[in-house]
Amino acid sequence: MTERDQLAAEFALGLLEGEELLAARGLAASDRGFAELVARWQEWLAPLLDTIAPVEPDAALWHRIAEAIAAPASAEVVRLRRVVRVWQLGTAMAAAAALVLALFVTLPGQGPGPQPAATQRAAAPAPLAVALAPQGGGTLSLVYLPGERRLVALAGALPARKGHDLELWLLPEGGKPLSLGLVAPGATRRLAIPPALAAQLGDGSAIAISLEPMGGSPTGQPTGPVLASGKVAPV
Amino acid sequence: MNASEAERSALLAAMHRLRAGEQAALAEIYRATSAKLFGICLRILQDSGEAEDALQEVYVGLWRNAARFDESRASPIAWLATFARNRAIDRLRMRGRAGTDAPIEAAGELADPSPLADIALEAGEDSLRIHHCLSLLEARQSSAIGAAFLDGTSYPELATRAGVPLGTMKSWIRRGLARLKECLER
Q1: How far apart are CA A223 and CA A36, in angstroms?
Q2: Residue A33's closest CA among A3, A5, A1?
Q3: What DSSP letter does each residue of A162-220 carry, written as one string?
Q4: How does pLDDT run across A101-154, given as a tens digit for each residue?
Q5: What is the value of ipTM here, to two decimals?
Q6: I want to staple B66 with a disulfide (CB 3.0 to 4.6 A). Which of A151, B18, B26, B115 is the partner?
Q7: A19 burial level (CB within 10 Å; 0-12, 13-18, 19+)
Q8: Cα A221 from Cα A125, distance rounded (Å)
Q9: Which residues of A touch B93 (CB under 8 A)?
Q10: Helices (DSSP H) in A3-130: which residue ranges?
C-alpha cells in the first residue's frame, strides 16, 4: 500500500489529526484520484455500520428539523455563530474545522452541507494546493497551510531522480525564483516557510520544481531543468 | 441497511422526490432511516443530546443538498449512514479538542468485530466482503480498525486501551489496512 493509499484509508476511518488531517483534506478537495480512494474506503466500510442496532430518537427531534428547514436563515446563523465561537478557541481547532469540511468533501458525491466551508475560511486561512506531474513521471501534491506557514509536499508517488535532488521554487510575479526547499521522493516532507517567503505565497502563486545537484541548487537559483510548474489555489 | 428490497426501492423513490424539492419526501426518509442513523450517532457520541444534534444536521444537510446523492455509487441508506457517522465523528473530535472530552475509560468498550446475524439481510456481496476480509486479520488489528470506524476511537485512545505505544498501534492498523485493501480488491 502506498503512502497515499494509507493516508486515504486513515482519513476515511477518521484517524488523522493535525497536519496530516489538513493535508488529507487538501488532497481530497484538489486531487480527484485521492478523493476517489477515500470514497472507496468509505464504501467498503459502510456495511459495518449495519452492526449497530437502531435506536429511535426522541419524537420531538423531527419537529426541530422541520423548524430548521422552515426557518433556514435564523437557525443557520445561530449554528454558525456557535461553530465559529468554538473554532476560535485556538489554532488546534483548525484541525477540527478541517475535519468538518473533510468529512463533507469525502462523502460520495461530495456529501451534503457546503456551509462549513465558508465558516472554515472565515476562521482560518484556507489551505492552498496544487498537484504537479513532473517530467520523468510520478505526481507531487503540494498543500500549503497559511496559518502554520507550512508546505506539505506529498511525494509518495514521485520517483527519485538518480544522482539529483528535486527542489521547489516559488515564482513571485516579476521577481526571481525563491527556494522553498527540497522534496523527498517517496515520502512526505513538511517544509517550514519563513515569514518573508510566506508573505509572497498566496492564492494563485506559481510554484515550480526543478532538477538540481544533490543537496539542492548551489547558486540559490534554479540551475537544472524545470520539470513542472503550477499555481496554487484554495481548497 | 437491513431494509427489505421494497423498503429500499421506496427509499430511493423518496430520495428522487426530495431531489425534486418535495418536503414531504424528507419526512418519509426520516421515518425510514432516523432510528438507524440515530443508533450510529449515539454509538459514537455516547450522549443522546449530542447525537440528536448530529442527526438534525444530517437531515437538514440532506434537505439542502439532496442533489449530491449519487445513486450510481451507493444505496441511499449506505450513503446516509456514512454521512451520519462522519457528522458524529466530527462532533466527537471537536469535543475532544475543546478539552471537554470524557476520560478515555468512559469512551466505551472495544467494538466486537464479529458480524452480527442480521447482516445476511443486507443485499449484495459487498457487505459480506468487508466482514470476511476483517476476519482474516489478526484479532488485534481487526478490533482496532473496527473500534476506529464504529466508535470513532482515535489512535491515542486505541493505544492506551491496548496498552501499547502509539507507534505500535499505528503500525498495527496500517499493516491491517494494507492487508484489508488487498483482500477487498481481490
Answers
A1: 37
A2: A5
A3: TTEEEEEEEE-TTS--EEEEEE-TTSEEEEEPPHHHHTT--TT-EEEEEEEETTS-SSS
A4: 454 444 444 344 433 433 433 456 788 888 888 888 888 888 888 888 889 888
A5: 0.82
A6: B18
A7: middle
A8: 29
A9: 14, 17, 96, 99
A10: 3-13, 18-30, 32-45, 60-70, 72-87, 92-105, 115-123
